[in-house]
Amino acid sequence: MLLGYGGDGSTGNGNHPSSRSLKDVLLLALDTATPAVTVALHDGTRVLAESRQVDARRHGELLLPAVDRVLAEAGHKLDAVSDIVVGVGPGPYTGLRVGLVTAATFGSVLGVPVHGLCTLDGIAHASGLTEPFVVATDARRKEVYWARYADARTRLTDPAVDRPADLADQVAGVPAVGAGAVLYDTVFTGVRREAPEHQSAGALADLAALKLAAGEELLPPQPLYLRRPDAQVPANYKVVTPR
């Protein structure tokens, strides 16, 4: 692994994937799909700077100052960034949108590709586990977003959203990481508490660098919701039109 930490789809600019030299790459990674507002700058070999603040209600308020802070710490200007990496979820609607819209805006302004990665994959990569395990994050509504992994780099199943009780037979005793596993540890009885609970943009950037160097496909920067947003128009809502 590039950092010592521990999808599939298309690249953000639609190019066919190919192995890529990361000599002059500067990746700006961000993720707001979990309660962690996390940003990192990665030079293709290592993380230069990283910020992570856990606050589920202040994604929009915290993200841009975190970007400024990371760039300043690394001694780079925004226009030096060559690629944007963003966690696409799964995650709650509002928080997830903050990161995706910000990533798209940076990509458009800078004229650089925007690459998506599954948020669960970033948490898995940070775990460094070499055995089969599951990642679970808190999906609210007494549910978790989760997926199975063969190791820290290899996801075996598509992300899903379920009630923990419905997963008991599948995950009991299986090594598990993530805030969802910690929250429902009576179901995820193999929870690894020493592993990171929340997303790390440094791990996300490291995983993206590995995939880009190997010519692997990344996801388009589109949200992975898995369910409808909490706020919905009432079924009996009447539209009032002016006369």
CATH topology name, in short, is Nucleotidyltransferase, domain 5
Percentage beta strand: 15-25%
Give the domain tally.
1
> First CA to last CA: what distance?
65 Å
Quaternary: single chain
Largest sheet: 6 strands, mixed
Can you tell me the CATH superfamily? Answer: ATPase, nucleotide binding domain
Quantity of strands, as a count: 11
CATH class: Alpha Beta
Q: What Rg is obtained from the alpha carbons, in whole angstroms? A: 18 Å
Helix content: 25-40%
Tally of individual helices:
6
What are the segments in which pLDDT stays under 50 over at least 5 consecutive residues? 1-17
Globally, the shape reads globular
Mean pLDDT: 88
CATH architectural arrangement: 2-Layer Sandwich
Question: Care to give the gist of this entry?
Answer:
27% of the residues lie in helices and 23% in strands. It is α/β, with parallel strands linked by helices and 243 residues long. α1 crosses α2 and α3 (119-127) packs across α6.
Describe the secondary structure blueprint for this structure.
Elements: E1 27-31, E2 36-42, E3 47-54, H1 59-74, E4 83-87, H2 93-110, E5 114-117, H3 119-127, E6 133-140, E7 143-151, E8 154-155, E9 160-162, H4 168-171, E10 175-177, H5 179-183, E11 190-191, H6 201-214
Parallel strand pairs: 1-4, 4-5, 6-10, 10-11
Antiparallel strand pairs: 1-2, 2-3, 6-7, 7-8, 7-9
Helix pairs in contact: 1-2, 3-6
Protein name: Putative tRNA threonylcarbamoyladenosine biosynthesis protein
InterPro entries: ATPase_NBD, Gcp-like_dom, T6A_TsaB
Organism: Streptomyces lydicamycinicus
